[in-house]
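Figure caption, in words: inputs first, then the predicted bound structure.
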Amino acid sequence: MKAQIKPGKILINNEWTEAASGKRFDVINPATETKLTDCAEGDLEDVNRAVSAARRAFEGGAWKKMSARERGRILNRAALLLDKYRQEIAELETLNNGKPVSETLHVDLTLAIETFEYYAGLADKIHGETIPVNGPFLNYTLREPAGVVGQIIPWNFPLLMAAWKLGPALATGCTVVLKPAEQTPLSALRLGEILIEAGLPPGVLNIVTGFGPTAGAALARHMDVDKVAFTGSTDIGKLVMKMASETNLKRVSLELGGKAPNIVFADSNLDDAVNGALRGIFFNQGEVCCAGSRLFVEQSIHDEFLNKLKTKAERLVVGDPLDPKTQMGAQVSQEQFKKILGYIEQGKKEGAKVVTGGAPAHTKGYFIKPTVLEGVTNQMTVAREEIFGPVVCAISFKDTNDLLKQANDTVYGLSAGIWTRDIGKAHRFAKEVKAGTIWINCYNQFDAASPFGGFKQSGFGRELGEHALELYTQVKSVWVALD
Ligand code: ADP
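Bound structure (adenosine-5'-diphosphate present):
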């Protein structure tokens, strides 16, 4: 084992400190239900200190003077270091989150590295424009960093969400106070060490570990934070927006929940679609905001499709996340574990039938069997609320127009999948489904260059790609009289 588990501290001004209150909280391994270590419990006072450090770094000093190209070099070095420490960080993430090490090694780490590489390359390509205007004037725009940024991230992809947030923020020249989820703070702290090793000057990245209602809320409310970027549940996203608007009207971007339709037509390649349905819901134990949790299956193939899905779901290896052969690990916490089992019971009460799974997979650890529910209607609680677990709700459909209505009949709009060999139908659906990402004959594809974000109550603002630069910059228009 390469991962080193050590007590977590708060990072302010490139120094590791205890919380002002001296308080600490436990960090749990969800696969064993035992304590891994503990972490400083930051709150208002720590956030105030972190924001002051970020403000000083933004307004003066090495970061402000640094060229964009040099910022890019730091991000590139961070990518190289993440690769160098890949095994160690993958194990750390697995121990803290419960997800399989095969995924942390090859998905989380790979995508995090590519995110830093991508924004390293973009750092020196952020520029304004010259605009032809009436009269004897030169008009041009400057694209300036947003300022001090608060970033609040969730526990399902702890390292990757930190990378999605930090890559564009640092490329644009912002300074950051990052608040990792209290369940999974360890990989973000390791990333902090790596960014310091890569050459990030003091105060540019500050990390305050702690709880949402204290540390998170302090950041969302802070009068000297210029922008808050949040990924998490829709309820807390609404709260973050409210706090931002009640205080200094800081800019907000939100990446929230989802209840994605994954639509399988009879004319699709069934085996591919089965694999896509499987990946769509069981990847990362279903703790994915864009999970394909509403599986719409055309009636004529419904039974055959569900049989195949059941067989494959039952073959998935659920167990020790550190075993390279494991395909599904533990849910992140006892709270999530109980919540998911509660949803399965609710589904049964409302008339859904358990095709497979529906129960804990082991006696120790927060493992849940891959679960397929059939006979679900789009009105049932399990089809309306985000379960955030390995539970797929199969809904049979006959009529294509009605299907489209049902697919869009949700408060969410993060993603959707469509399986068909009819390209006209595929593109028509891609246009009609109200969601930020559409996967045609594939699912859960990501790339640092491709934008990701929600329609409707799945949030607003686009992360990744060049679009994310808009979240962390503001445009200034400059007029020059020519005579
Ligand atoms: P989940 O319900 O999936 O745990 P949350 O939306 O509660 O997701 O958490 C996502 C992130 O938001 C975490 O970092 C959490 O600490 C933070 N958070 C939770 N409550 C608040 C709050 N009231 N204000 C600010 N941040 C919060």
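The chain has two domains: 10-256+457-479, 261-447.
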